[in-house]
Design brief:
About 40% of the residues lie in helices and about 10% in strands. Strand 5, helix 6 and strand 6 form a beta-alpha-beta unit. Helix 4 packs across helix 5 and helix 10 crosses helix 11. It is elongated, with a radius of gyration of 34 Å. The N and C termini lie far apart (about 105 Å).
Length: about 400
């Protein structure tokens, strides 16, 4: 009995030690309270109604960058029309737009003067995604070193931009400035995009700005698609109050959004402003993921690799190919030009078919074929009937 009791106590102590070891490992992970690691870089993001004391904010040396809200959905109408109420509303929207833009520009100047990196995000709403992308770029006027982000708050297309439209938004941004935005979204939407990565080939390959206000995200993070986050928004009004907050940034209110990077300040500065697709070669539209074994998938933490495939055709190659195909298509409606076609008056399509069906093509055979040709049906001639 005593020996059994000692074995039980020893087993319990070993289990406790293992639990403590796992707990310590979790705390040092980038998926469990990484902001407690003083080496991890922090980023603040704000919108127009957040107050900022810049002198106090600059005292926090862990703050590497500041991201500010830029545009919101579609731009306000340029002309105000309608009754008195509609006119007042239209003018109020324009006033808000103008004030927000001036505040945005002022914060950009102050941020860069303090030596911080700068970024801007667009709040995606239902509506024309191409026009929203243009509105975002015209509003933010991004410099080559400015981060851009597409903010998708949820997967309800009646309230937020649909994911299909978000793909078009991303394409339009890339068309205009040659790089991609970062994707900001919550855990549920990120998981849905990851589960449907075959459909959202751009959204699923954007650097992920992950929003989740929990101390641990290891079991929730869509690891099968993204191997990690670019930024994790871990603190906001949802979990930061007067008495308790994951991290307080000097000079900011309790409702300010705070983000952590999985790297130190120097590495984050080097990676900024992201702008590329993750784990994808330049020919991303033709890339396909290599299969992963079942054992590796069940083990977790799988790194997705992509097959080497031929690069997509250039614009000039596509023009040449389409030109060649058009020529073939057009020539299909013309009678082939054959140098040996007899030059005779009244030589039309009926005579041409008869001539083609004559094997020896001697003058006598040609005369017989032309005489027997049925002018109403090129599919049947006297020669054919004789052969049958």
């Amino acid at each position: 009995m005593k020996r059994t009791a000692r074995l039980l106590r020893r087993t319990a102590l070993l289990a406790l030690a293992a639990t403590m070891a796992l707990s310590t490992a979790a705390k040092t992970s980038d998926f469990s309270e990484p902001w407690k690691n003083a080496d991890r870089a922090l980023v603040v993001d704000a919108y127009e109604y957040n107050s900022i004391d810049w002198a106090r904010l600059a005292t926090d040396k862990r703050i590497v960058a500041f991201i500010n809200k830029a545009s919101d959905g579609m731009p306000p109408p340029y002309f105000c029309l309608g009754d008195d109420t509609e006119m007042k509303l239209c003018k109020a929207l324009w006033k808000r737009h103008a004030v927000t833009r001036e505040l945005f520009r002022t914060r950009r100047v102050v941020t860069k003067a303090l030596g911080l990196k700068w970024g801007a995000y667009h709040l995606a709403r239902p509506g024309n995604p191409v026009e929203q992308a243009n509105n975002f770029l015209d509003f933010a006027e991004p410099a080559p070193d400015d981060l851009m982000a597409l903010d998708i708050e949820g997967n309800d297309p009646s309230q937020w931009m649909s994911l299909d439209d978000a793909e078009e938004f991303v394409r339009q941004v890339h068309r205009r400035i040659g790089r991609f935005p970062v994707l900001y979204t919550n855990g549920k939407t990120a998981q849905y995009i990851a589960d449907n990565s075959y459909r959202y080939r751009l959204l699923s390959r954007l650097p992920l700005w992950y929003a989740r206000y929990k101390s641990d995200i290891d079991v929730h993070f869509p690891m099968g698609n993204w191997q990690g986050y670019a930024l994790w928004q871990f603190s906001a009004q949802a979990n930061c109050g007067r008495f308790r907050c994951p991290y307080r940034v000097a000079g900011t209110p309790n409702d300010i959004d705070v983000n952590v990077a999985p790297t130190d300040a120097a590495t984050l500065r080097a990676q900024w402003p992201f702008g590329g697709l993750i784990d994808v070669p330049p020919d991303y539209l033709a890339s396909i993921p290599l299969p992963v074994s079942r054992e590796a998938g069940l083990a977790g933490n799988v790194t997705i690799t992509y097959a080497s495939v031929a690069a997509p055709p250039t614009f000039e190659e596509m023009v040449a190919a389409l030109g060649t195909r058009w020529s073939r298509f057009r020539d299909g409606f013309r009678m082939p030009v054959v140098k040996t076609v007899p030059r005779r008056p009244g030589f039309g399509i009926v005579q041409y078919v008869a001539w083609k069906r004559t094997e020896q093509r001697s003058p006598a055979q040609l005369d017989a074929a032309f005489a027997a040709a049925d002018p109403l049906s090129t599919a049947s001639t006297e020669i054919d009937r004789g052969l049958r």
